[in-house]
Amino acid sequence: MKLQNQNAVLYQPEGKDALKALSETTDLCIGAHQDDIEIEAFGVISACLKSGGKRRFSGVTVTDGAGSPRAGEYADCSDEDMKKIRIKEQNAAAKIGGYAAMIQLGYSSSAVKKGGEDIVKEIAGIIEAASPETLYTHNLADKHDTHVAVALRVLEAVMSLPKDKRPKRVVCLEGWRDLDWLGDSEKAVFDSSDEKLALKILGVYKSQIAGGKRYDLASVGRRRANATFFASHDVDEAESLCFGFDVTDELYGGKSPEEIIRGAIERFEKDVISRVSRFS
Ligand SMILES: [Zn+2]
Fold first, then answer.
1. 139: closest CA among 112, 178, 106, 92?
2. Torsions phi, psi of 245, nearest 5?
3. How far apart, in Å, are the Cα atoms of 93 and each of 101, 135, 157, 214, 278?
4. What pLDDT, in 10s, does the model give residues 50-65?
């Protein structure tokens, strides 16, 4: 496999050929920005790392990080400086997370929003080469435009592949909007209890934390709340949970992304309204 994009940065933590190592992937997460993968897929990263080599995680970051917020010691960094800093931070996270491969595609945010065959083909090629059992991306109810655009390109890419080349499962993860509102029986849950590892892996994003946003603490806090307020008793032992929305059946059944998320919102609406009307 060859990447079309000249800006792409490949990294393999053990110094192997990243594109070759990509084929070891069982769990592939495709996110918009450097740090999205570690915020959203932490439970998966942690499970792969503890699997004794049975599962391997790989990450793809689609955009270049040029528009990153900057403050403190990063306040005077140009867009070009920020791109370099964020590439380094992402690779440091991949090393801590023991990823099989890390690919940073370096597209501009506007290119991803515009879409087009090139980006979709590039993503489809990576999915095919990695042939993961499960593919993860942003969820369609995220409130960040670029996150939603990436999710749409990823779902488009999956559907462009022949059926036998598609991942067994496609899961959309909570990021810039949580998935607490999704029915508990509909949630895909990932144990994220290793908070020491979570803080370590998000701690590499110094340029973002310096901007005043404590993504590390916020992510750990949200996952604690997820576990506490989750209704099922099956995972009582987990102190911390990441939530996802498994869209596999609906996507492969031919539903559009819009239909998939509309269905989930309508089920949420029905749940809320039925409870309110029952006690009115
Ligand atoms: Zn992001």
1. 178
2. -125, 110
3. 11, 19, 26, 16, 48
4. 999 999 999 999 998 8
Neighbours of 19 (CB within 10 A): 17
Q: Which fold has domain 9-254?
A: Rossmann fold (3.40.50)
59 CA → ligand 1 middle, Å:
14
Give pLDDT tens digits for 180-225: 999 988 999 999 999 999 999 999 998 888 777 889 999 999 999 9
Q: How far is the CA of 273 from the centre of ligand 1 (A)?
A: 32
Residue 129 burial by Cβ neighbours in a 10 Å radius (0-12, 13-18, 19+): buried
- Dmax of the chain from CA atoms? 63
Alpha carbon of residue 182 to chain centroid: 18
How far apart are the CA of 142 and the centre of ligand 1, in A? 10
pTM over cut 0.85: yes
The whole-number pLDDT of residue 279 equals 93
User: What is d(CA 98, CA 119) in angstroms, rounded to the nearest whole number?
Assistant: 26
In angstroms, the CA 92 to CA 97 distance is 9
Q: Is the pLDDT of residue 250 over 70?
A: yes
User: What is the C-alpha to C-alpha distance for residues 271 and 155, in angstroms, rounded to an integer?
Assistant: 27
CA angle 227, 201, 125 (to 5 degrees): 95
Mean pLDDT of the residues in the chain = 93
Question: Ligand 1 centre and the CA of 279: distance in Å?
Answer: 40
Give residue limits of the domains in the chain. Answer: 9-254
Residue 150 Cα to ligand 1 midpoint, Å, equals 10
Query: Cα(40) to centroid of ligand 1, in Å?
Result: 10
